[in-house]
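User: For documentation purposes, I need each entry recorded in a consistent format: the amino acid sequence on its own, followed directly by the corresponding structure tokens. There are two entries in this batch. Please keep commentary to a minimum and don't merge the entries.

Assistant: Recorded as requested. Entry 1:
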Amino acid sequence: MVDESGRSPAAAVFDALGGEYEKAFADSAVHRASLEWLLDRLGPGSRVLDVGSGTGRPTAAALAGAGHRVLGVDVSPVMVEIASRQVPGGEFRCADIRTMPLEDESFDAVCVYFALLQMSRAEQSALVRRLVRALRPGGFLVLATVPLDVEDFDGVFMGQAVRVSSFAAQDAIALVRGAGLTVLSEQSVMFTPAHPDARPEPQLFLHCRLDGTEQAG
């Protein structure tokens, strides 16, 4: 566990939630189906970056369990500690993915499950482009978000105050395409986390591939 991050609002939220976050989203069939989509396409021993890895379940656990080399990155030291215990086959780092060094063409796949929502729109756009540069040609990026047309919206998530920015669905799709990705499939669902303070939320899952050798700048 390497602590490269300073304290941030997102870290405070997820430090407070801890294992409650995993429990709230454990019944997400669409998240597990998304992971199966990726697992069906990865070659043996692929290197995968899990952005916003949380408790390590289900994403890092599924990938490591299938024999892939997983690097999970999260700003919450509490989440990183939980993930390190729960998924000993993965590597987890406490860091801010916005500033963490990423080597070009170093990953076969990148997972970004709901990790962008507490970043500004400009930060989200810049990060997606950074993540695409870290993909090898032919690699995959799976992104899930809450597709709402909001910026710097003050809300409450599972009892925690949050400031959220996001894109409407078509704008999120345009964002990943603009970064040089081909969207192979998309799925929109309504999901209610299993938590007394949670509300139903729309979710968008995008399954993308980096084709060829040219990437958007």
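Entry 2:
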Amino acid sequence: MAATADDTAQHTHASPPHRGRRRPGPVAMVISFFGEMLITAGVLLGLFVVYSLWWTNVVADRAADRQADKVRDSWAHESDGGERDAPAVYDSKNGIGFLHVPTMSDDDILVEKGTSMKVLNDGVAGYYTDPVKATLPTSGKKGNFALAAHRDGHGAKFHGIHQIEKGDPIVFETKDTWFVYKVFGILPETSKFNVGVLAKVPEESGREKAGHYITLTTCTPIYTSKYRYIVWGELVRTEKVDENRTPPEELR
């Protein structure tokens, strides 16, 4: 049935008057503002974490790969023709050799001089020159070949250091020699100021006499730099590098 005029009038009078939307009070506006600020801060923090833990690894790995190629190309050039018997240049700015630790990483970790952020941020390991001077294995002298690398970000070459166990091999590769070490001691946590672990006879390692040692150091716990994680190894033998650069059995 069609609606009558009376029905329409009654319906019109029954409808509530239209009112505009109430504006939020000052407290609500402040809460909303700070909420948006927290969301923005969270996004920025997330981007920073991605940059620190992923992108810096990408950039560092690229830099390390370029440097590694230079070292291997240099070795190949020194071994060509009449330069085959030329003495190896170990203390070059491009790197002195490669560290191999199968239980920690599959990487061939380039080793360079120094442990500054400028060096380590390129995704390499560096040997100490300060406050303790590392003894290079190529010198033939007894001492401690002490190294450092990042555990997270910037290549994170020592990220898996906690996977190393006593008895595991550590191999240092140079142009003409493989230096094969065996892990004998691990210190899961020590002060960042404990330089005694880098000594020629490393303190707290259990060794009391001079020998041919290697020490790996990095930050701990993961994603912090509060303490240092230490791994010690001792040289068990050396092998001459053949023309095919056949790795020692520990790396096969």
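Summary note for entry 2:
Residues 90 and 96 are 5 Å apart (CA to CA).
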